[in-house]
Amino acid sequence: MADLQKMTIATARDALRKGDFTSLELTESYLDASSSAAALNAYIAHTPDLARDQAKAADARISSGDAPSMCGIPLGIKDLFCTRDVQTQAASAILEGFRPPYESTTTQQLWDAGAVMLGKLNMDEFAMGSSNETSTYGPAVSPWRRADGGNTDLTPGGSSGGSASAVSADLCVAATGTDTGGSIRQPAAFTGIVGVKPTYGRVSRWGIVAFASSLDQAGPMTKTVRDAAIMLEAMAGHDPKDSTSAPMPVPDFEAALTGDIRGKTIGIPKEYRLEGMPQEIETLWADGTAMLRDAGARIVDISLPHTKYALPAYYVIAPAEASSNLARYDGVRYGHRATLSQGEGVTEMYERTRAEGFGKEVQRRIMIGAYVLSAGYYDAYYKRAQKVRTLIKQDFERVFADGIDAILTPATPSASFGIGEMADADPIKMYLNDVFTVTVNLAGLPGISVPTGLDSQGLPLGLQLIGQPWGEAEMLNTAYALEKAAGFAHYAPKWW
Amino acid sequence: MSIDKDTARRVAHLARIEVAEDALEGLAAELSGILGFMEQLMEVDVDGVEPMTSVTPLDLPRRADQVTDGNKQADILRNAPDAREGFFAVPKVVE
C-alpha cells in the first residue's frame, strides 16, 4: 500500500477513486499521527468515532461511483467553527463546555462533500493573536525548528496556528482556517503551507464564532495550491443564512490551474517595502517577482498610498466589531458563569464572568472597542477609521482599473519566532505581524500565501498574492505558477 | 489621547469586565499605548470621504417575513449554565 502520510487532497482523491486504499485506512493513519503529536498541541479535541463513521460513509459513496473531490479526505477543523455536538470554544475559557446543537454552513458543506473530521484545532482565543499564545489551551507549536541545533519551540503563527501546525506536520491532509487580518496567511507562511483568504462574501460565515464580522472570512489551509483550489470550491457558495454571503456562482477553481500566466500584469507595491525589513524578505520578494516575470507575466511598480494606515484603522475597526460581537458572552446562555457572593446581582455576574472567562488580549480588544465606539470618541476614531478604510479600498480599485491582475507582496515581515519571545513586547509589536495582510481584509479582497523559500535559519517564508474581487480562480492560477517556479519541497523533520 | 485611571474604570464598566482597582493604572497605560498607535489616523486627509459601510457593493437581501425555524427550546437551553423550567435563570434583577 502507498505511504498514507504526506498526502495531498489531490493525490488522496485520485488514489481513493482508484481503490489504492480506503478512506478508513487513510483516516486511521491520520488519527494515529494526530493522536501521537501532543507535543505540537495542534489538536484540542480528537473525534475518532465520528471520523471512522464519516470515513465508512465516504468509502460507500466512492465505491458507488459518487465521489466529490473532498470525499474521504481527513481534515482538521479550527475551533472557531461550530461543529454539532462537538466541543467548540474558540479556544476561550468563556465557552467552556459549549457543544453547539448546530453545524456551521462551511463545515456542513465539507461533510456533504464527503470529508472526514479528525478533530478540532487550536487557535488564538477568539482568533485574536498572531502566535497562538492567547489560546486557553496553551500555544500550538510549529513542527519547524531553527537549524541552530537548539530546541526552541517556535510559533506556527496565528490565529489559525493549530491548523498551520497540523497541516505542516502532516496531522491532517488539510484544515480550515479563518482570516480577519491575516490569520490564515501569516500562519501558512510561518509553516511552509498554502493559505487562502477568499473575497469577503465568498464563504458563508454562518456558524463561525464571530470576531469582526465585516472582515472575517474562512478559507482552506493546505499543502499545495491545487489542494487550496479543490477545498475552497467545497467551502464556497451562497448561503441565505449569512446576509453578506454573495449570491454568485462558484467557479471550478481547480480547472483554472493551467500555470499559464503569460500576458498577466503583476503589481509590486512600493509601500510594502518597509524600513528595517530583513534583507531575506527583500530577496524572497525579488526572487518571486523574477519567477513570475520568467513565467511570462509583466511586472509593474505600483503605489497603494494608504497602506501605512491600514494597521491603525484595523485596530480600531476590528476591536469595535469584536466588542459588539463578544457582548453575547454574559454567562447566561452558554459557557462559563462566575460564582457570586451573597448580595451580588446580575451586573457583578456579567462583569466577573467576563473577567474570568476572557484572556488578557481579548479583554484589551473589547475595551479598546468599547472606547472607540463610546460617545465623544466615535467620530474621532471609529468613523475616521471607516473613512480610511474607504481610501484603502480605493487604492486597490485604482490599480486594478489600471490593468493590474494581481499584486505580489511578502506574506509576513519575518519568519516564525520563538514562543514567549514577544511576551514582554508592546502589543503593537505583535500587531505588526499583520502589516502585509490586513489591507486585504479591509478591502474585502482575496489573498493567498504561497511558501517560496527558507530563511538563513532554515525556516519557511511565504509570498502573498492579492487578487481582484471574486478573482480567486485567476489568483490561484498565478499562485500555481509561483509554486511551480519556487519548487518549495521542504518538510519539518519529525521530532515530536 | 491618553487614558487616565477614571477613564479606564469607565471603559471596563462599559465593556462589562471586572477590573480590580489596583489594576486600573496598568490598564490605562496599556490602552493609552494602543490609542497612541491609532493617532496616526489623524494624519490622513478624510475630507469628503464616505465612511465604509459595506466592503462589497451588494445590497442586503430581503426575504419573506415567514418563520423558517423554531420549536427548539431544549436545544437553546442545553448549554445554559443555569436553566430552570424552560427559562434561563439569572440572579435577581429587581428587588
Overall description:
Chain A has helices spanning 9-18, 23-35, 48-63, 105-112, 161-168, 185-191, 225-235, 279-294, 310-325, 346-357, 360-373, 378-401, 427-431, 438-442, 472-486; strands at residues 43-46, 74-78, 116-121, 174-179, 194-197, 217-222, 265-269, 298-302, 406-410, 447-454, 460-467. Chain A is α/β, with parallel strands linked by helices and 496 residues long. An eleven-stranded mixed sheet of chain A has the order 1-3-2-4-6-5-10-11-9-7-8, with helices on both faces. With 95 residues, chain B is mainly alpha-helical. Chain B contains three helices and two strands, in the order αααββ. Chain B has helices at 5-14, 24-38, 73-77, and strands at residues 83-84, 87-88. In chain B, strands 1-2 form a two-stranded antiparallel sheet. In chain B, β1 (83-84) and β2 (87-88) form a beta hairpin. In chain B, α1 packs across α2 (24-38). The longest helix of chain B is centred in the N-terminal third of the chain and has 15 residues, at 24-38. The interface between A and B is large, with 77 and 52 residues.
Number of helices of chain B: 3
The helix content of chain A is 25-40%
Question: Compute the gyration radius of chain B: what is it?
Answer: 22 Å
What global shape of chain A is seen? globular
- What is the overall number of helices of chain A? 15
Given helix and strand content, the structural type of chain B is mainly alpha
Estimate percent helicity of chain B: 25-40%
Largest sheet: spatial strand order of chain B? 1-2
How many strand units of chain B? 2
